[in-house]
Design brief:
Chain B: Residues 121-132 have a biased composition (Polar residues). The structure holds two protein chains of two kinds. By secondary structure, chain A is mostly helical. Chain A has helices at residues 9-26, 32-49, 58-75, 77-83, 100-103, 106-117, 120-131, 136-143, 147-172. In chain B, 35% of the residues lie in helices and 30% in strands. Classes of the chains: A mainly alpha, B alpha+beta.
Chain lengths: 173, 179
């Protein structure tokens, strides 16, 4: 088998994490296209520095995505460049974080809205925990915070989401 | 509904958007086109060498100069203490533990016998900033180290002690590293 045909180590990581990283990045950047740019930059940087990365290193990949997303947000240069190019589709800032097909349901839309209304520091913890599947320790590593801080934020966020979704969950359960 | 059930409920409601097909290709191409960097880079936090370094150097040098100037001023004032009347010397002898820096001795030939005891540099606190600073080397985080330098001299004949405390603050710009 040709060397180029063999799956590269980064590919397994990409398959597993790409949607989660995209969702994580999407919190700070206005469009899905921007989020993909951020994920690309962070992913390449990470694998360049850690060509032997293992799953236990993946929280650092989230940290890289966060750093790149915040840099991207600060500079805004690429976004302006893209918006100047009419050939590229630009989603509006209120575009969804999640899959459109699923989101058509009322309850999903309610959750999407509730997530947006969370403080950013709580939302990122919920996203990493629920949709990223990270443990509190891994989230603490990724966000460079103590586990106590992370668990507190998570608890507050979950309470807020429960409050928002209460009518629906009562109806369903 | 406990937390775990609620998490599953949330997970079932929404699913992350799948990345575009081009993203994987773009990443693959970029990784293939870039030279592999040495693994030794991972996990290292280096001080910036371009922007920020001169700033830190100048500030640290300023603090060092201020401390040195204070020490020189005290040492320059020392001879005036030696010319104090003898009754002051006697007072000092009877109370060697007094905190005032009185230069006294029982023998006139050993009045200059103040000896440097020690210099300590104690790290009092560190404070990291959440703000990222843009430097030529990329984003960096500001970390502030506060020290207390203490220089101490004593006269073994009289027990008189003199000490000088100089607060010092170093601010380092640590590059944000993937580790």
């Amino acid at each position: 088998m040709n060397e180029s045909d063999q799956p590269q180590p980064w590919e397994a990581c990409y398959r597993e994490l790409a949607p989660k990283l995209l969702l994580f990045a999407r919190q700070w950047v206005p469009t899905s296209t921007d989020a993909e740019d951020v994920v690309q930059t962070a992913f390449v940087k990470f694998w360049q520095r850690r060509p032997d990365a293992h799953p236990e290193h993946y929280p650092l990949l989230y940290a890289a995505v966060r750093t790149c997303a915040l840099d991207f947000r600060r500079s805004g240069e690429r976004r302006l460049r893209r918006e100047a190019n009419p050939a590229v589709d630009v989603m509006r800032e209120d575009a969804t974080f999640f899959d459109h097909g699923v989101e058509q349901r009322e309850d999903a839309a309610l959750l999407d809205t509730a997530l947006r209304e969370l403080p950013p520091e709580q939302r990122e913890v919920v996203v990493l925990r629920v949709w990223g599947g990270l443990t509190f320790a891994e989230i603490a590593t990724a966000l460079e915070q103590s586990i106590n801080t992370i668990t507190s934020r998570y608890r507050y966020a979950l309470e807020a989401l429960r409050r928002e979704l209460k009518p629906y969950t009562h109806e369903r359960l | 509904m406990n937390d775990s059930e609620f998490e599953n409920h949330l997970r079932g409601l929404l699913q992350p958007v799948a990345p575009s097909a081009e993203l994987r290709e773009r990443i693959g191409e970029e990784l293939a086109s870039m030279p592999k960097r040495a693994a030794a880079y991972s996990g290292r936090i280096e001080r910036p060498t371009k922007s920020g370094f001169m700033h830190v150097l100048v500030r640290d040098f300023g603090w060092a100069c201020a401390g040195a100037a204070a020490a020189v001023a005290i040492l320059a004032a020392w001879p005036s203490f030696h010319r104090t009347p003898s009754k002051v010397v006697e007072t000092a002898q009877t109370a060697p533990a007094a905190s005032a820096p009185v230069a006294s001795t029982s023998s006139p030939t050993s009045t200059n016998a103040f000896e440097h005891d020690e210099t300590t540099n104690e790290l009092v606190s560190t404070q990291g900033s959440d703000q990222l600073v843009e430097t030529d080397d990329g984003p960096a985080r500001e970390v502030r180290y506060s020290y207390l330098e203490r220089h101490e001299w004593s006269n073994p004949h009289t027990g008189a002690r003199v000490y000088l405390e100089v607060p010092r603050e170093d601010i380092y710009l640590l590059p944000v590293s993937l580790q």
